[in-house]
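mind reviewing this stuff:

——
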Amino acid sequence: MAGLVLAFFPGPAPASIDTYLDQALNATGLPGVSVVVTRGGEIVHATGAGHDAHGDAVTENTPMRVASVSKSFTAAAVMTLVEDGRVGLDDEVHDHLPQLPPRITVRRLLNQTSGISDASVDIGQLTGARTLAEYVDLLRPVDAAEPGTRFAYSNVNYNVAARLVEVVSGQPYEDYLRQNVFEPLGMHDSRAGGDAPNGFNSLCGIWLDRPELGDGPAVGGSGTVITTAHDMGRWLVAQNGHGPFATESLAAMHGPSDVHDYGMGWQPDNNGMLVHSGNLWTYNAIQAIDPESGHGYAVMTNGAGVVDDTGTILAGLIALSRGETPARPGSSRQLVEWVLAAIGLLAVALGVLGVVRARRWARRRSPRHPWLTVARLVVVALPAVLFVLYPQVVSFVSSGRTVLWAQLWYFALPVTVTLTAAALAGIAVLTARVVRLVSVR
């Protein structure tokens, strides 16, 4: 049956992948992209386009940060311990890590149903930890919901899982991952933590070379894997059943929990694919496997902006694999950023005009309607109020994920700069009007 499925879904020609990737790079304006397509037990093609921060060409061997795609590797590391009988999926994590509350099992940790959410811990404090041991020690107290009753996506779960690997194995997480996941798969250019070329953030359509933000353990289970397109090909082949992982382990990693369709670093999309994306401060990535056709895909970029183009590029690769013509690649990133820049410039212009006209405004106020004067002062202060609440607002629209101030100067740089300009303009107008009101009296 598997042979018939693979015959029905012939892999795309490597040349067509190269051509599409060049088109996608030109359309999106990304600095660099690497991709891989697999089929059954083979790598169809791994390639790259663009450049890295050193000016070198991006190839299938260029190291890329894959952010939260790392979670599936952490799940795999835990599953090797399960296969060896050193820990059970239904064991309580508390038995190995007493800092964690009871009733959180290993399975619930990986399914993101542990009851831990960003709101239940101090995310800001956790950014100061440089090791997984420090990270877990900083967790207490954990105000977790009833384990196993609801899904809450949080990096905390997978950093705890990585620390569990250390405690059970007696090895540093990066060493265990290398010896028990990367090396058996032939992923010789992959590692957890370490250095990679700087990534990029976009502002007004210009890509800025920036170092990665250090906001947590240097080696963690939620987002510190650095790998290549070639190595990701070996990983995807194994995830499609052509590797050392037991069938039961793959079923556990890919299958849903009792309360959500998220598995263990994988989640089904609306097209029957299993996917997981990763959004870091200067890198983005996405991986996908198609259980029906046996295809696997990974897209990695060394640029992160207000628009993530990895999903669009993935859709084009899937279309190629199905013998379809991919939609013309494109991106709204540059348009969005120019609109934000225009809003910022308009805010500055209105701020200058408001300061210049502050004396006239104060003289024309209505003494009989002081509430109207107050209302107009409140209006010009609104951008500053929004600026103060900015991290909370972004965290709210991010489905409860905590976003900190430092992080907002990376992937959201255009929004942050625009809001800063509007807030400063509003404060300038507010100050000028209050000063003029006092002088008029």
